[in-house]
Design a protein that fits this description.
Layout: E1 4-8, H1 20-28, E2 33-40, E3 46-48, H2 69-73, H3 86-92, E4 97-101, H4 106-116, E5 123-127, H5 130-139, E6 145-149, H6 155-162, E7 167-171, H7 177-185, E8 189-193, H8 198-206, E9 211-214, H9 217-222
Parallel strand pairs: 1-2, 1-9, 2-4, 4-5, 5-6, 6-7, 7-8, 8-9
Antiparallel strand pairs: 2-3
Helix pairs in contact: 4-5
């Protein structure tokens, strides 16, 4: 498999994160995959947003879980964009997706949508939560999964294998060549986030990573010069 560039919440460095505008831009710029985040609204909708609260990225206030989908739709998510639900994203773009489960409760809802819409081959499920990945693998045995970690040690390899993940997606600031080699020896691919500079990209290529998560489309174009 070639070196992957993954659009972080679309291309959040140039467009409002986790919006249809951002996802369409990521697809237009040629990112190999598009990463997004899912939470459940008060009425059980699979809402695409990173934070548990709406305050940072919209003009609304409070936890997502306290708002119905209708209430969330009234909020401005940047440049006039509305908060999308997962089903809208899979219809708006054709690119492969990484859906990150931010709330363990969303695992069942996401698994239901992937099954009903026959999206198992198109959508990877990733999470910081081991139990969420284990739950999804039980519900959808064929789904590809990735364990995400920010603060971690070499035990992250064992954790990923325990939950049946195909890869790990790790904070590049803590990544070591030793860990990369251990993960590869265990049959895991290794992705790094968030890679936003040419120096970080060169480090990622030098360590033999399988791909990077980035906020900027320029990193996709720069990969041709760092192979």
């Amino acid at each position: 498999m070639s070196f992957l560039t993954i659009g972080h919440r679309g291309v959040m460095g140039v467009e409002p994160e986790n919006t249809l505008r951002s996802f369409r831009r990521a697809e237009h710029e040629g990112l190999d995959l598009i990463e997004l985040d899912v939470h459940l609204s008060k009425d059980g909708a699979l809402v695409v947003m990173h934070d548990a609260d709406v305050d940072r990225t919209t003009d609304g206030h409070g936890p997502i879980a306290d708002h119905t989908l209708a209430a969330l739709r009234e909020m401005d998510a940047g440049k006039g964009e509305r908060i999308p639900v997962f089903e809208e994203v899979v219809e708006a773009v054709r690119s492969p997706l990484q859906a990150e489960i931010k709330d363990v409760a969303a695992a069942h809802a996401l698994a239901d949508v992937l099954r009903e819409r026959d999206l198992v081959d198109r959508v990877d499920v990733i999470s910081f939560h081991d139990e969420a990945l284990a739950a999804v693998r039980t519900l959808l045995p064929g789904v590809r999964t990735g364990l995400v970690a920010s603060r971690y040690g070499t035990d992250v390899v064992d954790r990923a294998r325990t939950v049946g993940a195909e890869y790990v997606s790790l904070n590049i600031r803590r990544l070591t060549l030793e860990l990369v080699e251990r993960a590869h020896a265990a049959g895991l691919r290794v992705l790094a986030w968030t890679v936003n500079t040419h120096d970080q990209l060169r480090i990622a290529r030098g360590m033999g990573l399988d791909g990077v998560v980035t906020d900027f489309p320029e990193i996709r174009r720069a990969t041709r010069f760092t192979a």
